[in-house]
Amino acid sequence: MWEYTEKVKNLFLHPQNVGEIADADAVGEVGSIVCGDALKLFLKIDKETGRITDARFQTFGCASAIASSTALTEMVKGRTLDEALKVTNKDIADFLGGLPEQKMHCSVMGREALEAAIANYRGEAFPAEPKEKVVCKCFDVTEDKIRKVAIENHLTTFDEITNYTKAGGGCGECVPDIEAILRDLWPIKPPKKPATPKKLTNLQKIALIQEVIESEVRPGLQADNGDIELIDIDGNKVTVALRGMCTGCLMSDVTIKGIQDKLRELVNKEIVVEALIR
Ligand code: FES
User: Fold this and answer.
1) Torsion of CA 26, 142, 136, 68, to 10 degrees
2) Angle in degrees, CA 267, 102, 155, rounded to 5
3) What is the pLDDT of residues 38-61, one digit of tens each?
4) Ligand 1 centroid vs 172 CA: distance in angstroms?
5) Residue 127: DSSP 8-state
6) Whole-angstrom distance, CA of residue 58 vs CA of residue 52
7) Does this model's pTM top 0.70?
8) pLDDT at res. 4
């Protein structure tokens, strides 16, 4: 499902700057384990020059969160705080040779941790306005964050917002609010003409589902030390079991939804994916 660059794979297997700085001058903590990703960034800052002399991190997240955190710490070392604040989430993704769209939220989390740490050093509140409206309760994403990330990365669709912030990737209750924010930000685009669905025989459909799982889904899960087992196909109902690191993962609902979206896109828009828990 996800194609990682060699650099992401390498930095996941050999992360740098992992751990805490006991006497850190600044600490920035973003995300939450409940939401599936969390990052704590520690900075050591030279008071004379205002330059970052060391940067380390602790993270709870997937391969791209670990690689993005390594990239961030490498990029900010030696910079002044104002120079460091110029590092965008796109710079982090570029440092890694790119990230899968569905994993761009890891680069956004890195940029956020940097802002939080520098605000902490400067004695400022982070976020600046503590009473920001939370749009997505599942992932604790505020309206300001959605607007900021959408503008910085020129995101125009709901799926892009989910890829970059996770907002909307859970129960889906916030979808209308996110779409309203996008309509407010960008001119309405004409809807794409839907592709004419292909009529498949039952055997063709089963073969295509197996092929999509093998080529589009399994490699991405295996890259995160997870796996998938196809249990049954009954009409449009596909039953799967998540294996390896995906078993019992807090993000398993999001993973199942991603698999369902992929099968709907490539096989049949009526497909429903269910997870077998055992
Ligand atoms: S409130 Fe946003 S996905 Fe549940």
Assistant:
1) -40
2) 105
3) 899 999 999 999 999 999 999 887
4) 5
5) S
6) 18
7) no
8) 86
CA of 264 to the centre of ligand 1 (A): 21
- Which protein residue has the closest C-alpha to ligand 1 atom 2? 136
Instruction: Give the pocket of ligand 1 (CB within 6 Å).
Output: 136-138, 167-174
How many angstroms does the Cα of residue 254 sit away from the middle of ligand 1? 11
163-198: pLDDT as tens digits: 999 999 888 899 999 999 998 888 655 445 444 455
Whole-number Å distance between alpha carbons of 59 and 20: 10
Whole-angstrom distance, CA of residue 33 vs CA of residue 84: 26
Distance of alpha carbon 138 from alpha carbon 31, whole angstroms: 12
Q: CA gyration radius for the chain?
A: 20
- Residue 96 in contact with residue 5, Cβ under 8 Å? yes
Using DSSP's 3-state secondary structure scheme, residue 96 falls into coil
Q: What is the set of active-site residues? A: 35, 106
